[in-house]
Amino acid sequence: MTLRKIRPTSFKKKRICKLLGLAAFLSLGTLSAHADVTLEDGVIPHKGIDALYEKLADATASLDTNGFSEIYAEDVFYLIPTAPLIQGIDGIKPDWDDWFVWMKEGNGTLEMDFRIVAREVYDDAMGYDIGYAKTLQKRPNEADVIYETKFVVVTKKQSNGEWRYQVDAYSKLKKDE
Fold first, then answer.
1. What is the pLDDT of residues 88-109, one digit of tens each?
2. What's the predicted TM-score (pTM) here?
3. Angle 172-174-177 from CA coordinates, rounded to 5°
4. Which residues on neighbouring strands pair with residue 68, listed in sequence order?
5. Residue 125 in 3-state DSSP?
6. How far apart are CA 51 and CA 13, in angstroms?
7. Which of 29, 61, 82, 135 is found 20 to 30 A from 10 (Cα to Cα)?
8. How far apart are CA 33 and CA 55, in angstroms?
9. How, if at all, do strands 109-122 and 37-40 pair?
């Protein structure tokens, strides 16, 4: 199996900042977080769709749901294991806001990485990705927590030419005990 990493153009700068520690890195304000987006063999890079993963990682690292308006379609469907079907950005934000407030209060940080195992894009207008995501949650004086999920997203090109998640569905991976 061949894997390809999609790296932002400022990878070296971002990797150096990551080594300084995410908390110090975020306090600089002008730099964004870095997400590793790995495409498995056969998955073709797509500039508009791949950028969504970086934007999601940035919004998560900055602990601010305001960035979601650049990631999700206004009428997005959000399917998570712990809630009924959620539609619209306004339905997504409260759940994330609660987590982000809790992280901020505890001086915590979040980092996300993605591995895309399948992608189809139709007429450069709509597509889907299937893959895995890993979120690293760090809070001082607490053990780090890693959330591993499998997901499917449906992406759609908006009338302004930008790509957004139209459907975001995930479930937690079961750990071996």
1. 999 999 889 999 999 999 999 9
2. 0.78
3. 150
4. none
5. coil
6. 18
7. 135
8. 9
9. parallel
